[in-house]
Amino acid sequence: AIRFEQKAGQADKSQWSGILVFAEQEQGEIHPVTLELIGEARRLGGPKGYEVNVALIGGEGTAERAEMLKRYGVDKIYAYEHEALGSFKADSYTKVMADCITRMQPSVVLVGATALGRSLAPRLATRFHTGLTADCTKLEMRENTDLVQIRPAFGGNVMAQILSTESRPQFATVRHKVMDAPERSAVATGEVVFCEVAEEMVSSAIKVRSVHAAERSCGIEEEDVLVVAGRGVKDEKGMELVKALADVLGGQVCCTRALVEEGYGDPTRQIGLSGRTVKPKLIVTCGVSGSIQFASGMKNSECIVAIDADPEALIFNIAHYCINDDLYEVIPPLVERLKQKKEVCSHAFSLS
Amino acid sequence: MKIIVCIKQVPDSSDVAIDPESGTLIRMGQNAKTNPYDLYAIETALRIRDEVGGTVTALTMGPPQAEEMMRDAYMMGVDETVVMSDRKFAGSDVLATSYTLSQGIKMLEGADLIICGKQTTDGDTAQIGPAIAEHLDIPHVAWVKSLEEVNDRFIAVVHQMSGHVQVSEMPYPCLITVDKDIFVPRLPSYKTKLSTREKEVRFLSFADLPDKNLSRFGIIGSPTQVDKMFPPEAAEGQVHIEGNSVEKANRLVALLSEAKIL
Ligand SMILES: Cc1cc2nc3c(=O)[nH]c(=O)nc-3n(C[C@H](O)[C@H](O)[C@H](O)COP(=O)(O)OP(=O)(O)OC[C@H]3O[C@@H](n4cnc5c(N)ncnc54)[C@H](O)[C@@H]3O)c2cc1C
Ligand SMILES: Cc1cc2nc3c(=O)[nH]c(=O)nc-3n(C[C@H](O)[C@H](O)[C@H](O)COP(=O)(O)OP(=O)(O)OC[C@H]3O[C@@H](n4cnc5c(N)ncnc54)[C@H](O)[C@@H]3O)c2cc1C
């Protein structure tokens, strides 16, 4: 393995310039966080006139997918394709990324804060004896190229500003849906650099036995998106609407106790004092009054959208987005609109 | 088989606030407890030991009070505990902490399997495990959600990726970080409490370590600095969405997209 005898406090900053984005692929697809990191890298590097380059590592088809990235305003796309890189192995991916970093000598390396990224980045930063800031929500670059990194800690109760002033490269991981992806441009400007994958890079102690799509857990506590049916949902038709909304949002249906009592709700999916406590990124309540017993199980959700016919409903005291309307009227156009939006997004990304 | 499990003492509540005057941390709870995610790591270690045979050593870097945490680890059933404590370790970031722990592991003559929790509830980076593996030049797998096969030659684990689960196999020595819910952590038992009362917590300091190069430890060995801390911005005001049903639906989608919730 390549070892760097650089210690904290020894980097000559002028030797390191530009920004390198690690482009995550999982089973042949580029993770959408990649585009967001490219957008952010361009914003950060703009004033310095920094190059923004991308490292794309993977199995068969990687070189082709590298072409796709050409239209997002990047300079070089380093493509490392080898059948042994088809699945993630922390040790061999580290060797490949180390090769790319040594080639480019970037000032900053951005990695998605995904399961893969958070396994790879710490290993890589350690190899270069440099700092890594986890889960950044905001980045700025100073005139002297120091990266100002802001991240939550203590479960989100505190924001910390972190700097690595003496060492290079500066590594940061960033979550999906935090930064802005650039528009896809009509002209392809990036250049694909095909990099040789040496046997030493793919030799790994890890043997991948299998990879399969994750089955969706039915534990509603783990879900990022929940749609709740309350007593305002009065029949099978209402349940279908709620289900359609959950499907298009990629979430799960749950319910209040009143709905369990009405016979439409599944008791294992009841939220509240005598049910489950949840904290999803998004929760949409439909025909839920927002009793204290219900709210105690969901009030810490990151974003609460409430749909209720009663303007005085308690749920509107804790909701971030309030829709005072009949759920039977508002859910159908909502589902329609979300479907349209999804199509536009997947279309934009599949075009190369 | 020799297993080392890395555990950290954290404030008993992450309910902290920032003093607006001084910008320093105000801790609500004065007490410390074992990082809750590390209980899953201990449980995993104990189960593997009970199945394959061997010993479990709990290792921490922290202030001397970490001894209390090690009493609890004994009560759960670990065989040996080691606290790495020295003023020279103060102010360590991930790089320095993981290096110090890797030095401790070398002092203990290594391990076949090293197990970490998925993250802590204070620093919250989830970076220590992979960084230790790199210092020791051994393979690792992070975010392990279940064990598929364990014997005295290798371990095969199921781990979560973004949209997939992967099953990976590694020979020893290697490191895993385990997700919550891999197993239900056992409660400390009164019987073990009695039988481990006399057990000693071993302390290691800087002077005991093989590497005497101070520039790798503590604040000097830490490339990252916490420059300042501040409270998160308050949630934005409530939005009442008006219009007819279709307008409301469209407006909501636009607002959620803008806020990057969709
Ligand atoms: C000890 C105890 C424990 C409890 N634990 C729980 C618990 O864990 N979980 C729980 O949920 N409850 C619990 N409850 C019950 C709780 O007090 C409420 O009765 C319950 O949450 C009400 O559910 P709801 O909001 O679905 O129904 P309701 O309060 O009847 O509200 C229905 C809402 O739907 C609206 N609505 C009606 N028609 C429409 C329409 N067409 N379009 C839009 N909106 C419409 C109404 O305006 C109303 O706001 C508990 C109670 C006790 C005493
Ligand atoms: C607000 C704040 C933000 C910070 N941000 C960063 C940052 O972005 N980058 C950075 O490099 N440092 C950062 N630090 C410093 C970092 O938290 C500490 O250096 C700490 O030693 C390591 O990380 P952690 O708590 O994040 O552990 P994690 O990496 O989340 O812990 C994972 C696992 O490693 C093991 N482990 C962790 N610490 C120990 C220990 N001391 N002894 C034994 N086992 C252990 C446990 O098994 C644990 O479950 C930050 C500190 C604060 C207070």
From TrEMBL, chain B:
The Electron transfer flavoprotein alpha/beta-subunit N-terminal domain, residue ranges: 22-213
Pfam families registered for this protein in UniProt: ETF
Annotated GO MF terms: electron transfer activity
UniProt cross-references to Gene3D superfamilies, sorted A to Z: HUPs
Family matches, as InterPro entries: ETF_a/b_N, ETF_b, ETF_beta_N, Rossmann-like_a/b/a_fold
Entries under PANTHER family matching the protein: ELECTRON TRANSFER FLAVOPROTEIN BETA-SUBUNIT, PROTEIN FIXA
Name assigned to this protein: Electron transfer flavoprotein small subunit
